[in-house]
Each structure stands twice: as C-alpha cells, then as structure tokens.
Amino acid sequence: MTTPLPGDFALTKIRGIAGAAISAGQFLIGDGAPVQHAMVYVGDGLIVQAMPGGAECIRLEDASPVVAWSTGKFEMTDWQRDGIVFAARALVGTPYSFLDFGSLALERFHIRSQWVRDYVQSTGHMICSQLVDEAYRRAGVSLFADGRTPGDVTPGDLYRLIEDRGRRG
C-alpha cells in the first residue's frame, strides 16, 4: 500500500458507462491507458478532483480505487508540495467541460486551430488531468518537458509519465 504525501497525484479507473466512454475516447486518440481519472492528494485523507459538477474536495476513501500514485516519482520540496496543495484547493469549484476532450482529440490528430486552443484555455474549465497539471504548474512544478501547451494532458499522459519515472528510478 502506497502512503501518499500531500501534493502527490493518483490515477484511477472509472467504472460503468462513463468509464467506458472515456476509455473509448482515449483509445480513439491513441491514448489507451488503464486509467481514466486523475486527482491530487491534499493531505488529511482528502483529494481534489475535477468532476462534471465542478472540481470537488472529498475523502480519498470515497474516490475511485487508485491504480497508480505519483508518490516517490518526483523530487519536490515541502514548499512545492504546499504550493500544489494550495493550488489544488483553490481550484475547487472550477467548472468541467467535455469540450476539453474534443480539444485534446483535435490536438492529438494535429488539426486543432489556435482559435480552439485559445477558446478552451480562456474558459477556465478543466478535466481531471488538466486540474492536476494546473495545480503543479501553479506551484512551479513542470510535469512535462516536451513543449506541450499547459493543460494538453490526459490521464494516460500522467500514467505514462509516472510509469516512465518508475522505470528510471
């Protein structure tokens, strides 16, 4: 059993129709991964996650079972961890948008226009993986060094990132 530290993120599977739809969408854009959801651990048994009704802070035990943790995969200072927790908590209530899935799909197929990218970023909406990426970015921790636009991240991207770091470590 992994004991997460505040600021770590977790990846989960989503059961039911929603999970099947997300898995199908991920597969269609070449992002097949065994996870469909991401969340940030903020300490005291709580997580922050993006949901269709808006980002929420709930008990970890009430969330989907964790498939993978980022714990031990990133060296971070206590200050960075505190920053991630602060940023994640500040994102509670952030609206969710299924349009972001469409934007990510267009990006994967290399057909997303600058207008679409700018519009999606201007709305302030986030899906789960974008929330994780944004909390880290606000704390000054860059998860990806591949030149991607902030927020162009799926749960599969996060999964591959921690899997890659696990192989290196």
Please describe what this structure looks like.
This protein has a single domain, classed as endopeptidase fold (from Nostoc punctiforme). Helix content is 42%, strand content 14%. A 5-stranded antiparallel sheet has the order 4-3-2-1-5, covered by helices on one side.
Q: What is the beta-strand fraction?
A: 5-15%
- How many discrete structural domains? 1
Backbone shape: globular
Largest sheet geometry: 5 strands, antiparallel
Radius of gyration from the alpha-carbon trace, in angstroms: 15 Å
CATH class call: Alpha Beta
Uncertain runs are none
Number of strands: 5
Return the CATH topology. endopeptidase fold (from Nostoc punctiforme)
- What structural category arises from helix and sheet content? alpha+beta
H and E order: EHEEEEHHHHH
Strand order of the largest sheet: 4-3-2-1-5
Give average pLDDT, whole number.
86
Quickly count the helices: 6
CATH 2nd-level architecture: Alpha-Beta Complex
Fraction of residues in helix: 40-55%
Q: Span between N and C termini?
A: 18 Å
Short summary of the structure?
With 169 residues, the protein is of the alpha+beta class.
Fill in the keyword field for this structure.
169 residues, alpha+beta, 6 helices, five-stranded antiparallel β-sheet, endopeptidase fold (from Nostoc punctiforme)
Helix-strand blueprint:
Blueprint (H helix, E strand, L loop, with lengths): L8 E4 L3 H13 L8 E7 L2 E4 L6 E4 L6 E4 L8 H13 L8 H10 L5 H10 L4 H11 L16 H14 L1
Antiparallel strand pairs: 1-2, 1-5, 2-3, 3-4
Helix pairs in contact: 2-5
